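Our working data are protein records whose layout never changes between entries. The record below serves as our worked example for the rest of this section:
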Amino acid sequence: MLGARDRPGWPPGEGTAAGLQGFAVDKTFLSSLRGILLETELALTFIIFICFTASISAYMAAPLLEFFITLAFLFLYATQYYKRLDRLNWPCLDFLRCVSAIIIFLVVSFAAVTSRDGAAIAAFVFGIILVSVLAFDAFKIYQTEMAPSATEGE
C-alpha cells in the first residue's frame, strides 16, 4: 500500500500550498473590537469551565459547550471562512449565540452561587462579567449588522 509520500507529485507543489491559504489567519480581525470581544468571551468561558470543574462538575457542560461554539466562531471569522458559507446569516447566528449564552450563563451562575463554594462563587463572578461582555457583543452586532439604517427607510 502506498503512503502519501510515495505518491507521484510528492512533495506538494505550489497549487496545494495555495489551497491552504483559505485558512490563513487575518491578524487585523484579531486586533479589531469584534476579535477582542470573541477572544475575551473565549478566555472567560474557559475560566468559568475551570471554576466549575473545581467546584460543581454538574455545571461544567454549559461553559465547555459555549467555549467550543465561541472557538468555532472565532476560527470562522479569523480565517474569513464564513464568507464561503454565504447561505447562512452570520450576524443573526452570532447574535443568537450571544443571547442564548447570556440566558444560559445567568441561570448557571445563579444556580452555582447557592453552593457557597469558593470556586463556585468565582464562577458566578466570572459568569456575570461574561454576561456583560456578551450583552455588549450582542448590542454591537445588532447595532452594526441588524438594525435598519436611516437610509433604508427613506
Notes: The chain has one domain: 27-145. Residues 9-13 have pLDDT under 50 and may be disordered.
